UniProtKB/TrEMBL annotation, chain A:
Family to which the UniProt record says this protein belongs: Belongs to the ABC transporter superfamily.
Stored SMART domains: AAA
Organism: Xanthobacter agilis
Keyword tags: ATP-binding, Ion transport, Nucleotide-binding, Transport, Zinc, Zinc transport
Domain (ABC transporter): residue spans on this chain: 5-233
Gene3D superfamilies, alphabetized: P-loop containing nucleotide triphosphate hydrolases (3.40.50.300)
One Pfam family hit: ABC_tran
Name the record gives this protein: Zinc/manganese transport system ATP-binding protein
Molecular function GO labels: ATP binding
Automatic annotation (TrEMBL), chain B:
Any Pfam family hit: ABC-3
PANTHER family named among the record's database cross-references: ABC-TRANSPORTER METAL-BINDING PROTEIN, IRON TRANSPORT SYSTEM MEMBRANE PROTEIN HI_0360-RELATED
Protein name as annotated: Zinc/manganese transport system permease protein
Membrane topology: Multi-pass membrane protein
Key words, A-Z: Membrane, Transmembrane, Transmembrane helix, Transport
Family note: Belongs to the ABC-3 integral membrane protein family.
Source organism phylogeny: Bacteria, Pseudomonadati, Pseudomonadota, Alphaproteobacteria, Hyphomicrobiales
Amino acid sequence: MTAQISFRDLTLGYERHPAVHHLSGEVAEGALLAICGPNGAGKSTLLKGICGALRPQGGSVDLHGVSPRDIAYLPQGAEIDRSFPISVYDLVSMGLWRRAGLFGGIGRRERVRIEEAIAAVGLDGFESRPIGSLSGGQMQRTLFARLLLQDARVILLDEPFTALDAKTTADLVDLVGRWHGERRTVLAVLHDFDLVRAAFPDTLLLARQPVAWGPTAEALKAENLLKARHMGEAWQADAATCPVAA
Amino acid sequence: MTPYDALIAPFVEFEFMRRAVVGVFALALGAGPLGTFLMLRRMSLTGDAMAHAILPGAAIGFLLAGLNLYAMSLGGMVAGLLVAVGAGVVARATELKEDASLAAFYLISLALGVLIVSLRGSNVDLLHVLFGTVLGIDDATLLLIAGITTATLFTLAVIWRPLVMDCVDPTFLASVSRSGGVSHIAFLALVVLNLVGGFHALGTLLAVGLMMLPAATARFFVRDLSALVALSTLIAFLSGLVGLLVSYHLGTPSGPSIILVAGAAYGCAVVFGPAGGVLSRLLPGRHLEA
């Protein structure tokens, strides 16, 4: 087993308050890992730390040769300006940025790939629709098509199935399974334990500090969940400096 | 009056009218796309703030070198770029949002400009900068405007993709590339350049009008980005052309005439525009089958 992501005593946070506190461990290459935990447990923060959007306050993240810019990252409730006049096709084609850049042509091969990605998420016929006219589920499908085009070795998903119906969720979970089959490393923040148990072999249960990390059935045992619930949401305005040496 | 007398004769007979129309055409080429992006990025008032930021720089240039095209342009550009880049950097590097940091910077610039002017004890007629003289455009000014327009179109071609991506999904662009910040600051610099080019013809405040009014008008007719850019450029040019003719025939000042023509087009679009205008909302037609 080769590691794809290694956390070394990682502390991430905002204004010196840690949201992820002293996390150590490794995510194997090709792993399909669910990240669970109560609100405020540092799940989104951890993803931001991995893709480089947030600098560690202590410790480090090692991506083993993958550049943070080659990670495909789908943030929670992505801040997309839905009123901007752009089509589904153009939004999806943004996934080619790392290859095309400023001037790179979008030729016949790229167009085929864009169309395949749109078809893979079940949006055939929506290519020229403005993104402002999409439903929530269609928008999420569009973003998954863009992720497909990014063709990344490491994929981070932050609550990707929130507010989606069963059919859309099932379709997108299938895509995640496909990535897993292609030995890509996928980390997803999720709240639906049934879904996690059904589709994710491994789980990291986080409550600022790791509560459990391992095979899903093991990590999501009732005693661990109870422990996580008690540890969450401990932001204190007058917190003292952490005594653990950096 | 024959149509020839009304529409063609002024340009055939007077060189200053021909220069004016060429100048307005060049300005429209830059103002169309820039105005469209300012509107789509919800930065419509940013142009106005920039215009204020340029004013003191131009006034300082005037103080040092008199009514000199290059001194005033350079002063305006320096002041405008300092404000644009400073505000952009503060917005990206700190928690302060773009509008607040821009307001802070342009107010400082404006106050500083007024202070310097008053210290020099000279009574600069800022009105000259506020309202330009489109009918007094000489060769040097025309070249300056054309140069700015050329640079603008080239730069826009280079930063087009990151600029669009930064508008639609800034988080995504930031996750795959660092070009978001660079393209944003380049875009603000282009706005400053074009306002400087525009102030000789229309004055700083009205130069913003040639960017924003046509863009806002076009939004009521088309929804596609390329179409928006093309249509707002066309509207900007037509406003300039019609405004010049109105000013010629009625003897009104040219700058305000041009902007008022653009304003009239905007007024019509608000009422009759098929894409979200007042009438299309009041009389939406029967709903469709699917």
